Amino acid sequence: MRKLIFGMNVTLDGYIAAPGDDLGWSGGEGPDSSSSDELFQWWSDRVGATGLALYGRKLWEAMSSQWPTADQQPGATPAEIEFARRWRDMPKVVFSSTIDKVDWNTRLVTGDAVAEITRLKAEDGGPMDIVGATLAAAAMRAGLIDEYVLVTYPVLVGGGTPFFTALDSWVNLNLVETRTFPGGVLLTRYETRR
């Protein structure tokens, strides 16, 4: 059985995107771009260790607009080149009823996301990462997420897209890792108690 992990950058007040899908707080144009090299390498290593990545449409469109050719851009750093290669090579599934084509080692699922994620979890293989708020919320409500990884930035944005969704019942967690990155970015990793 595969492990399903939900991990994203998040603001201290719990949002993965500020209003208007603004992600500036977590990147080079954000309040503190100095946290980046070590953290970028950590995310790249995660991509390298992921057996299968599950994407919602919005995040898929953002990632697929940048990473397939990022290694060919002038001034690409060695870390960006490595991440682009890892991202292209990583098997991916995109859940969407509004797009009709995906590339770069990716399969499109237009049907019931929870049923497909349940089926994929039952297979043998490496860990699965689920990314995208709407897709992760469906898996969260269905009790499918085994681990939560929050990379918390010391910024408050006051609203936007929340990391966590409303739940029908509590989910008890065990803290399994903490790590501080430059710039006060804090990694916390929790496993779901079953």
TrEMBL record:
<dbReference type="Pfam" id="PF01872">
    <property type="entry name" value="RibD_C"/>
</dbReference>
<dbReference type="InterPro" id="IPR050765">
    <property type="entry name" value="Riboflavin_Biosynth_HTPR"/>
</dbReference>
<protein>
    <submittedName>
        <fullName>Dihydrofolate reductase family protein</fullName>
    </submittedName>
</protein>
<dbReference type="InterPro" id="IPR002734">
    <property type="entry name" value="RibDG_C"/>
</dbReference>
<feature type="domain" description="Bacterial bifunctional deaminase-reductase C-terminal">
    <location>
        <begin position="2"/>
        <end position="187"/>
    </location>
</feature>
<dbReference type="InterPro" id="IPR024072">
    <property type="entry name" value="DHFR-like_dom_sf"/>
</dbReference>
